[in-house]
User: Fold this.
Amino acid sequence: MTFGKGCHLHLIDGSAFIFRAYHALPPLTRKSDGLPIGAVAGFCNMLWGQLTQNRGRTGPTHIAVVFDYSSKTFRDDIYDKYKANRPELPEDLRPQFPLTREATRAFNVACLEMEGYEADDIIATLARRATEAGGEVTIISSDKDLMQLVGNGVVMFDAMKNRTIDRDEVIEKFGVPPERVVDVQSLAGDSVDNVPGAPGIGIKTAALLINEYGDLETLLSRAEEIKQPKRRAALIENADLIRVSKRLVTLDAQAPVTESLDALEVRDPEAEPLMAFLSQMEFRTLTRRVAEALKIEPPVMADNSLTPDHAEKAADDPAPASTPVPFSHGDYECVRDRAALDRWIAAIREAGHVAVDTETTSLDEMRAALVGISLSVVPGQACYIPLGHRQGGDLFAGDALSDGQMPLDEALAALKPVLEDASILKIGQNMKYDWKIFARHGIRIAPFDDTMLMSYAMHAGLHNHGMDGLSERYLGHKPIEIKSLLGSGKSAITFDRVPVDDAVKYAAEDADVTLRLWQAFKPDLHRAAVTTVYETLERPLVPVLAEMEMAGIRVDPNVLSRMSNAFAQKMAGLEAEIHEIAGQPFNVGSPKQLGEILFDAMGVPGGEKGKTGAYSTGADVLEDIAANTDLGRPADLAARVLDWRQVSKLKSTYTDALQGHINPDTGRVHTSYSIAGANTGRLASTDPNLQNIPVRTEEGRRIREAFVAGPGMRLVSLDYSQIELRILAHVADIPALKQAFRDGIDIHAMTASQMFGVPLDEMTPEVRRRAKAINFGVIYGISGFGLARNLRIPRAEAQAFIDTYFERFPGIREYMDRTVAFAKDKGFVQTLFGRKIHTPEINAKGPTAGFARRAAINAPIQGAAADIIRRAMIRMPDAIRGLPATMLLQVHDELLFEVEDGAVEDLITAARKTMEGAAHPAVHLDVPLIADSGQGANWAEAH
Assistant:
């Protein structure tokens, strides 16, 4: 059929179909191999609907589905930042793109894409050709960029809302007719595609200007006539960018599309290839519907009973009702031989997923012995494989293994292919622990999901994310408590001493609970709009941290021992001074005795007693007394006690305790990072905590001297420079701060100059110090009282500093007010990367409200900084691959590496590039990220 008058071309925006399908449905996987197919299922249903329903309009004579080509286009040559803000594709969506192309061809519909051009350009070209040939065109899409094509025989149809978009709808949206849409878009820009436009001019203002002046070029040529100063300046100063924007938003209707209109004629689906594709995807319902329409018998498919979220069922009913399977410990199986294990492995391969958990003798993954493994494939059905249980139930019963257990090596050899199979999803709760246990036995788990991190992505700030709490909250089930098996205190036993029958109930239940949490949480990630956070910031970090923790950092026990002795001597000297000032000896470490000395013997006013009857002598109380030099001896005493406490903490927490954390097998300290420990996304370090080593005092910095590089190696530190202030400058849109960061100016000196009117060349260290305290204090919502304590100045003076700060930088106050208002309205705040931090106390009354307000203000800033270094860490293994270097530690804004002497500069170059580019392409910051580097034989020298 030759295309001409009377023909009707339907052009389907394929990329829009994919994304709508992806976000409309829960995560769905193919039963046979775990392949993500949710978007494909939705796409096929939408396409079949277009092929079989006219929706009240004349059916098409010609049809094509048009896709974006997955590479750069000519627009990237026009403007290198085009679409730089686009977030990375979710991990489970990426493999579905080629499948939608296969689906289009399987339905016997023309499938079009072209390198160097976007789908919109192909649609514009085919629409032009069709109307020139006398035909009509319907574009199946709601994309605003395509609205410039409406008119002269072209309409759009929004399939999701079942409505036609013609000239009137375009005018309603843009305020101008279709032929002027490009002019409005050129002025307003587009933050999604990073089209610059004119700063401060939105759609409404742009429409007013275009309607007044007629077209874009006339407007730009007469820009000096505009009365409003900001609009006038925006147009005059950004004229070139506006013209660039016009080239970016104008669709190319002359693209070299090779397909003829005649080749797009509607064709009936061919039964054999279509049935083959639908069967391959395991789309039962759609296969049956299509077979009925084609009047053929549907192909027979394998049973899908082990797939609780089968793609086709969910595509038809995204939230199917289900009856929860009751928990029954008696149904759990104890796997004692290879035949039983093989049956479970077969079930895992059939289901395409398995919840897995390990039982060990310790929470220290580097020293823990593997005692058993639990598995679950279907809710209510789980097993436990005992591998290392000892005879008897206590420490004195002997070390012989209990009967009826598989040899550890045999069980791991059987499970290794499954646990490493890319087509089988492994599901865990706090998977990093199990990942390390298996890694120590030569097994690298992949791919995996982590229910703890799913909960964290959705519920940060609402509650903790431990399995027992999640089970009670979301499953209504209270799991067996570990204390009921191990006991507590000095009489506690390790899990290898737990009788196997008791262990089966506890361990198998863990796997069962984990599987059920996964089924509950996985679809909710999309509904909570945090899939990208989970897929790009949480889950990929697990193996990175696990490798770092297993590598550990070398610590010299002799250096620690010498420091402990030196600290002990310093404490003794401070005690002598304290006793002399007090006029009598007392136990400096006793808050009760210290309070009696200060408030009773020395007569310091304002002492407050707690419930025990003892005076409060916390750090804040002592800091206030020490700052009040008018008190004389009591102020000196408080200052000395603060010094004594600091040295005492360094000795007990670090120089003494760290010696006990050195692994005897590796000679290294292996900290453990908690991914879900802080609401903002910051990592927490435990056992031991290496993130709280003080670096502002000489004694604290000395502790880092004990962290050393191995023979022939160096430690290299890269640290983000003032990253939170840079993010504040960006999110609060403070021109002076942004420009200072771009120019590399000392930000604290610049702030002091702006606030206090002191020229930069006359800046004193004291004035700069005060500005620095305010800069960082503002991020944390510091009060006049808090700043007064930090600077040891009168409260009124401190409050005046803060008031002056907000006068000089009003955008910061606006950001704070805007953020708090958002939190009160939504119940959460968000980082630049989509992380949600819930603020349940934001509408509370009293002191709690103030804390919640400060937390809400700080969370998007601290959270964005945490997201950026997470992104850097996730990319780092690939960035330094091939270099003789290992990433060892993360301390908030700092990464520490161990590298061979000869590769230091190569490591610094690769790591710095990764860190400084970590925000892209998800977010384009208005300020540069800077990573400072250092190197040395020990950590103190490197940082």
Q: What stands out?
A: The first strand starts at residue 8 and ends at 13. Residues 303-323, 393-397 have pLDDT under 50 and may be disordered.
